Amino acid sequence: MPRPPRPPRPTDGQPWKKRAPKGGPRSGGDRQRPAFPRDHDGPVVLYGHHSVAEALANPRRKLIRLMATENAWARLSEAGLGDRIEPEMVRPGQIDRLLTPDAVHQGLYLEAEALESPTIDTIPEDGLVLVLDQITDPHNVGAIVRTAAAFKVDAIVTTARHSPEATGVLAKAASGGLEHAPIVLVQNLARALEALGERGFLRVGLDSDGPSPLDETELGRGGVALVLGAEGKGLRQLTRDTCDRLARLEMPGEIRSLNVSNAAAISLYVAMRARAGVSAAGTG
């Protein structure tokens, strides 16, 4: 296999300053840490190898600007991901200045447009959905997105307010999962749950004091929406009231609760096995 062409070396001199891409939206001028608004008038920021690689491999993701170190770009090129955008070759410190001190960017910083958000009506009627009730920690939401992508969840439903943006820290924690787990943004979670119910989805709220274990809960053959609340607060009362059932994850140990991203992973595993069992029974 021929080696990819050697990219130009970064130049020494003045610190890199952000310039608006030709014909594209401005992303904050030369500010070191641009803040992108909730409505994504500015670009989504993706950094780190997995997040950037998955974005480059996703034809639905419109790219604006890529900053890369020589080694990081060579790695992308060798993987066949270097033909969609020409990078600006930089040194690691130039990316450091755009991110928080603890950000691990691995020599890659990508600005791209937000993915088109689906709607409740576009979710398959027999789909598996995660509903997030005001989970605000971007690390937790990113981990949930990654897990949802691994389980091929049909959608993640969350509110436009009281939830982190699909950019930066969340995107890094998702490790490329944003390209594979559709996020449905809604204005009112209770109304979104009602809409799912009208479409035939069974809405199951996860609660540590739920009346029955999730693995003993009949999930049926149709769509299933697993509803997760924020750590500490759990599900809000209106969210609980809108669910068809409440269920718990059985914890035999002294600790009765889990990090919400871990709870999401276990819940999805239980639901997938239950639905596979129903499907197998129906074809037997």
UniProtKB/TrEMBL annotation:
<feature type="domain" description="RNA 2-O ribose methyltransferase substrate binding">
    <location>
        <begin position="45"/>
        <end position="118"/>
    </location>
</feature>
<dbReference type="InterPro" id="IPR001537">
    <property type="entry name" value="SpoU_MeTrfase"/>
</dbReference>
<dbReference type="InterPro" id="IPR004441">
    <property type="entry name" value="rRNA_MeTrfase_TrmH"/>
</dbReference>
<dbReference type="InterPro" id="IPR029026">
    <property type="entry name" value="tRNA_m1G_MTases_N"/>
</dbReference>
<keyword id="KW-0808">Transferase</keyword>
<feature type="compositionally biased region" description="Basic and acidic residues">
    <location>
        <begin position="28"/>
        <end position="42"/>
    </location>
</feature>
<dbReference type="GO" id="GO:0008173">
    <property type="term" value="F:RNA methyltransferase activity"/>
</dbReference>
<protein>
    <submittedName>
        <fullName>23S rRNA (Guanosine(2251)-2'-O)-methyltransferase RlmB</fullName>
    </submittedName>
</protein>
<dbReference type="InterPro" id="IPR029064">
    <property type="entry name" value="Ribosomal_eL30-like_sf"/>
</dbReference>
<dbReference type="GO" id="GO:0006396">
    <property type="term" value="P:RNA processing"/>
</dbReference>
<dbReference type="GO" id="GO:0005829">
    <property type="term" value="C:cytosol"/>
</dbReference>
<dbReference type="InterPro" id="IPR029028">
    <property type="entry name" value="Alpha/beta_knot_MTases"/>
</dbReference>
<keyword id="KW-0489">Methyltransferase</keyword>
<dbReference type="Pfam" id="PF08032">
    <property type="entry name" value="SpoU_sub_bind"/>
</dbReference>
<dbReference type="GO" id="GO:0032259">
    <property type="term" value="P:methylation"/>
</dbReference>
<feature type="region of interest" description="Disordered">
    <location>
        <begin position="1"/>
        <end position="43"/>
    </location>
</feature>
<dbReference type="Pfam" id="PF00588">
    <property type="entry name" value="SpoU_methylase"/>
</dbReference>
<dbReference type="GO" id="GO:0003723">
    <property type="term" value="F:RNA binding"/>
</dbReference>
<dbReference type="InterPro" id="IPR013123">
    <property type="entry name" value="SpoU_subst-bd"/>
</dbReference>
<feature type="compositionally biased region" description="Pro residues">
    <location>
        <begin position="1"/>
        <end position="10"/>
    </location>
</feature>
